[in-house]
């Protein structure tokens, strides 16, 4: 009799665990989509991605490397997408919940957020998507390709630096605002510093420095 009782109890435990597993698997994933040129990626990008993930309790932040950033290609030369992807992969390595993505590179052609969000939605129709943009980029959302369709696909996450104003209103969007420490870092300044042989330690993650050194990016090592 005792043996039978123990078997029943064991079955009940297994059933309870199975039910809990099913409930957990049915909870939609919360995925941040952090796109950019990342030419090069720097600690400001990592601070933004990690802070958003923590504050909004996201399952992961997908760092999507642009193939052809259509709003920048006419203004300056862009480093090859393969180099930028290698640097982003190096930057996020070891950061829990951050993942580099070649989705836009694999798709080819000009990079449009509408296509990226649509593809992510197709891969996981139940996921909650959060489009992460800086405050400056958010101000130009109306100029983005098929901008009116974007609010149907994701929640907008506007990342601003501490002390910046937040007067901007975004009609039709569900909006989250995340503040990060004020870091006066820009990729353009970093490219200039690297090209002039100036150190970028602590501003650019060391694994990224190793990639750009190996590939001699931004004029590094030029005679």
Give a verbal description of the structure.
The chain is α/β, with parallel strands linked by helices. It has a single domain, classed as HUPs (Rossmann fold, 3-Layer(aba) Sandwich), CATH 3.40.50. Helix content is 40%, strand content 18%. The chain is built from eight helices and eight strands, in the order H-E-H-E-E-H-E-H-E-H-E-H-E-E-H-H. It has a six-stranded parallel sheet, with helices on both faces. A two-stranded parallel sheet has the order 3-5. Helix 3 packs antiparallel against helix 8. The longest helix has 25 residues. The N terminus is likely disordered.
Topology, pairings included?
Layout: H1 2-26, E1 30-36, H2 43-55, E2 60-65, E3 68-69, H3 81-92, E4 98-101, H4 103-107, E5 110-111, H5 113-123, E6 128-134, H6 135-138, E7 155-161, E8 175-180, H7 187-195, H8 206-215
Helix pairs in contact: 3-8
